[in-house]
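re: ur question from earlier - yeah i can do the single chain one, its not a big deal. heres the input i used so u can compare w yours
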Amino acid sequence: MSYRGRFAPSPTGVLHAGSLVAALASWLDARAHGGVWLLRIEDVDTPRCVPGADHEILRQLAVCGLHADEPPVWQSARAAHYQQALDALAAAGRAYPCACSRKDIEAAQAAAGLLRERHAELPYPGTCRPERGGLAGRPGRAWRLHTGDAARIDWTDRRLGAQQQDVASAVGDVVLRRADGLWAYQLAVVVDDAAQGITHVVRGEDLADNTPRQILLQRALGVPTPAYLHTPLVLAADGCKLSKQNGAAPLDLSDPLAALRAAASVLGLPPLPGSALPDWLASAVAAWPWRASVA
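and the output i got, formated as tokens:
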């Protein structure tokens, strides 16, 4: 199998220490296996995107010596492809319109005795499924994937090992197109991974729980499932994932090698030789610990 990997940042801000870890990991994995490394700007959530952040991210990566092998792709230019996928799912009976608001979902779950835990998703109860009456005269707001009533996904992460999740009970019917008309992350990433021929996904551990619903969607669309590796996270002072939302500082690239060394330590790499950027990156590729774990 020819290896094709990618780094797919959202331009809701520039890169910080945590996002450099994900970028370096995906680049190292591709280089360690003689593969192709791509860049995809995941800008479907346009209200959250910061003007100019996409090009600044590309500049930051270049300063760190992380260069893509093909021109970057912007999700905002790919709406027609997402619509085509949604149309195919709807025609196959795997997608349906939904009229429920967040309050509707919370009320339905509360009536069933379920309360949302802090930071947890509230599974969709299937109110608007066609077999339950569909929209019942209400206007459609979003589109959802019909997961079925038993949708247990078993998968193996190259770092975390055996994983499983029942998508139906943990998440419910996954949103494909949001009530505001924007394309949902889950659909966009699955369509784009397939279109770009991605064989291996390397990303932060916080995205591991997205993997089962993406595998379910891959199967519904009849596209291949990549191999997955979820990397350790950089944590903020409060123990939560370092992110733009909790005030992560932009990368200080006055010394790119120092930033890369810090990212490498999070990934478990030992101190590496090389005082020049190309030499250090070559040492990091040779030391990549998941070299032998590619499926």
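The beta strands are 4-7, 36-41, 73-74, 95-98, 142-145, 152-157, 161-166, 175-177, 200-204, 227-231. not sure if urs matches, ping me
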